[in-house]
Amino acid sequence: MVHVKINGIPVEVEPGTSVLNAAKQAGVRIPTLCYHDDLTPFGSCGLCIVKQEGSAKIIRACAAPVNEGLSVITHDAELYEVRKTILELILSTHPSSCLTCIRNTECELQDLAAEFGIREQPFEVRLSDRPKDTSSASIVLDPEKCIKCGRCVQVCQDLQGTFALEFIGRGDGTYMAPAAMLKLDDSPCVKCGQCAAHCPVGAIYEKDEIGSFRKAVNDPDKKVVVQIAPSIRVGLSESFGLPAGTVTTKKIYFALKKLGAYAVHDTNFSADLTIIEEGHELVGRLTKGGVMPLLTSCCPSWIDYVQKYYPDLLDHVSSCKSPMQMHGAITKTFYAEKAGLDPSKIYSVAIMPCTAKKFESKRDDNMSASGYQDVDLVLTTRELARMIKDSAIDFLKLEEMEADSPIGEYSGAGTIFGATGGVMEAAVRTAYHVVTGKEMERVEVEAVRGLDEIKKGTVDFDGTPIRVAVVHGLSHAKEVLDEIREAKANGTKAPYEFIEIMACRGGCIAGGGQPYGANDILRKERSAGLYADDKKSVYRCSHQNPSIIKLYEDFLEKPMSEKAHHLLHTTYQELPLYKA
Amino acid sequence: MAFRNYILVCGGTACESSRADQIYQNLVKECEAQGVADEVQVIKTGCFGFCEQGPIVKILPEDSFYVKVSPNDAHELIAEHIIKGREVTRLLYNKEESRKHAKVEDIQFYQKQFRIVLRNCGFIDPENIDEYIAREGYEALEKALFEMTGDDIIQELKTAGLRGRGGAGFPTWMKWNFTKQAENDVKYVVCNADEGDPGAYMDRSTLEGDPHSVLEAMTICGKAIGAHRGFIYIRAEYPLAIHRLEIAMAQAREYGLLGTNILGSGFDFDIEIRLGAGAFVCGEETALLQSIEGRRGMPQPRPPFPAVKGLWGRPTVINNVETWANIPIIITKGGNWFSKIGTADSKGTKVFALTGKIRNSGLVEVPMGTTLREIVFDIGGGIANGRKFKAVQTGGPSGGVITEKDLDTPIDFGSLVRIGSMMGSGGMIVMDEDDCIVDVAKFYLNFTVDESCGKCAPCRIGGRSLCNILEKITAGNGVPEDLETLQTIGHAMKTGSLCALGQTAPNPVLSSMKYFPEEYRAHIEDKACPSGTCKKLVRYSILADKCIGCTACARKCPVGAITGEKKQIHIIDQSTCIKCGVCLETCKFGAVVVH
What we know:
The complex is a heterodimer of chains A (580) and B (595). With 580 residues, chain A is α/β, with parallel strands linked by helices. In chain A, 35% of the residues lie in helices and 13% in strands. Chain A has helices at residues 19-25, 77-91, 108-115, 151-159, 194-198, 210-217, 232-239, 249-258, 267-288, 300-309, 323-339, 356-360, 381-390, 412-415, 422-436, 474-490, 520-536, 546-556, 562-568, and strands spanning 2-6, 9-13, 49-52, 58-60, 71-73, 139-141, 166-168, 175-177, 204-206, 223-228, 263-266, 294-295, 346-352, 377-380, 454-461, 464-472, 498-502. In chain A, strand 7 and strand 8 (175-177) form a beta hairpin. In chain A, helix 7 (232-239) crosses helix 13 (381-390), helix 9 (267-288) crosses helix 11 (323-339) and helix 9 crosses helix 15. Chain B is α/β, with parallel strands linked by helices. Chain B is built from 24 helices and 17 strands. In chain B, the strands form 5 sheets. A 5-stranded mixed beta sheet of chain B has the order 10-9-13-11-12. A 4-stranded mixed beta sheet of chain B has the order 2-1-3-4, covered by helices on one side. A 4-stranded parallel beta sheet of chain B has the order 7-6-5-8, sandwiched between helices. In chain B, helix 6 crosses helix 13, helix 10 crosses helix 13 and helix 21 crosses helix 22. Chain A binds chain B through residues 41-47, 49, 58-60, 62-65, 78-79, 81-83, 85-86, 89-90, 92-93, 122-124, 126, 147-148, 150, 166-167, 169-174, and chain B through 279, 296, 298, 300-304, 449-458, 460-465, 468-469, 485, 488-489, 491-492, 495-498.
């Protein structure tokens, strides 16, 4: 342990702790703007400057590691003035259009301006006149609001290994954008939206499509049918001040009904459906000598990534559509039939923790397997939260209700899809059953839970070892994908049978469309919420879900049937990194 | 001497751009044509430093110092000096003195200089390793490899008291020691040759004139800290330096002085060149390392320092060219010898690039502790054109102005900071009374604002804001509150910027405000530029009692702003006048005045 003093307060911290975190332990809050728990300290904003006693040097608390005997002053008149001036300088290049900004009341710069009591603009205001980039189906880039903190670039390059965003230009003319003056849609961007989730201001945000929802529910000709993704139930609560990890599934159903939905379903149901199909695909490949290892396919950013960066591995990717797309296809076929609705009149809406899902719903013709676009509209958790607030619904006092049948019932395996390792765990629970004909005694697969970047383990299927790996955060995908590539090049077998890859760190619970502020503490709490919900559920395995069993009996016949193939499976193609 | 005469032709970039290569070619041709090729060796050397007088040709053994030589002079130099033994007086620096007194030592420019870093520049052919070796080259490496341990080498630097010449003056031995102590199997040695200060070219000249001294020093460092790979990061705008480095590296490898098993010692060390695209900020060590890694050159927060976590996360020693060039001689002559030169605070010498309104511009190397007055007036020969000295800017765009009252300060790292400037990399720009201090501050700030990487908010936004305010003031739109705003933003930049570029960018503004407050006030309150530099504040008019109506000014005015009949008083139409000043130059009667 290292002993340091923060404003004279002695604290004992782990070696390697930053001054910022040591101060936190001493109960001292140092203002920050560019700093984010997820990222390597970048030091661009200059707000966390502190003085080191016995030295004239000013250090950045976010980046400086403590050393034994270090004594720092975090607050004095000079530091206050300098921080305030820096903040005023930043504000001099940022529009004061807070009232109409998507981040109004949720903006880190706004919070700091309030905290520092900034009442006037002492410096000449200079705003960027770069146009918005609206080319992407998922996110919007607004250079005028950008404060060049660099978080988006760090997220894109370091966390996601994607390099769609870069610092362009220099000095006062610096801006964040794809290289070569390309638009986002023509760049390597995988639409994960982590840039938007990490942006402290309103410079990158999800494409807001609340208007389309409102238009649809007010159209007498349309029946709006909504599905909610696994991680919405644990994410939305934070937007209404509930502790992270609080599950509010049944309030969300009711809120959506109040917002005008004709029926509310649960994507968890289709997560179960995905497991049945993918589980059989895995077992099929295992027993019939198919291409191994199998890679999951639920995450649209991961799919975009593999199509752009590892097109040579596309035959490893499961042909299963994502639960959302399966759900859309089932909604406009099986559900329409059961509910006696004309599928052309169904307006299928998905509430997702994800910005890439907006893109996925229109990706290609496979996303219109029902004969119509299977999912008409995707809204993120943040959009749903705004919509509920706009509609004067008191979410906390809302009653609870069940999802509409017959595609609302789900197992705990479907629920945990939202957390990293969840798909793997759910798949193992069912694949074990398919292979051995037995149920697992203990369904929890601890090896694939938690926030380690790459989790590896072996599951014993009654004598057959299945080697699995779980990756979250696209920059880590490279490691296992390169292992597969290398094995292929050497003519050997990759050391895995089944690999789950999710683009976002922590999985969908910290997706690019979830409430702001995700860090590892929140990721753990949100995941814990899902795992607790799983534990409470009546059915723990997808194949036990009676509604799924019924769906096969009444409609799909059997897993991997021709009908299932048509509606629930898709194909992939190589994509260029940069569209010319 | 194997030859009767040696003709040294300056091959530095400045002389090369004045056709020194043609002079060299012509001299070689003339030697052959006039039949003395066997007796005379023509050598292209590195920079002589006296760039004001270039191209320079020196002939040994007479030590005749020929200046402003042109390619056409080759014939005469050979025919007269070499064949007939008569100096070509018209080309000598001291024309008025007889041939016997035209030697280098007699030239005032060189008299107070003491050359360690530039010891070989202008003496040897930088493209010939034998000439370097003949001047004790690679002796230090041999000593380091066979007689010294890593700690011995570091101790020698400690005894010498060498401080980094890149700007901050950090003790070199400490840097090496931290890196040596950092535990890691891979360590790197980096040479910062990304010289970027406007007007500074000592690193370029050192590499052009004596590339082996840097290679030798880096190899010694590799031995001291346990590194086997070095990088020289040099801007692509220095093609001649790069070319000579490449030749030097190839020759060193051929001689077994670089590469595997150096001199049979078992020690391996090799060096690679990395070209920079010319961003000033890449001279900042962490940005430079990012650039070598192939990333955008942006500074990183320190700590952690490169000595602990540098290139590709490995412990790295990074020193600038001038620092490296000091090291071989410290190892050969010993730290004690070196420590006797200079002041208590700073040992050794410092090379300055002396430019501006000075008679003798050029590269000068003086012992630490030399006063600014000696540099400006004795070596530099004082202000050109009989104007009055106003100030000298040291430290390039990061430094501050120093006025008459501080000219007798013996300069070293500490004293310059105490008088509000800094050593920086050694740019020294002299201003006279015709220079507007606000305009000069604006010039430097414009440079740093252009060169800011844009990463940190204080520098990116603050720099531009300062610039805009100065623009406003020099355009006559300043208000008294602007002075306070300049102070506030300047202070925030100094305190809050991530790297030295932003931390020092406001220095020219803050120091000039301190020493020349009246000039700022004149611009703001009187809307006047005392030196007549700020075009928007200048107003030309014709004094009625002096104008004789000769029409000369009206005829010269390029925009027809002056009207008046012959023998009548002329008038300048202010709305048409473009303030070019031609009328002022033209009028022989002192009738045109500038306000």
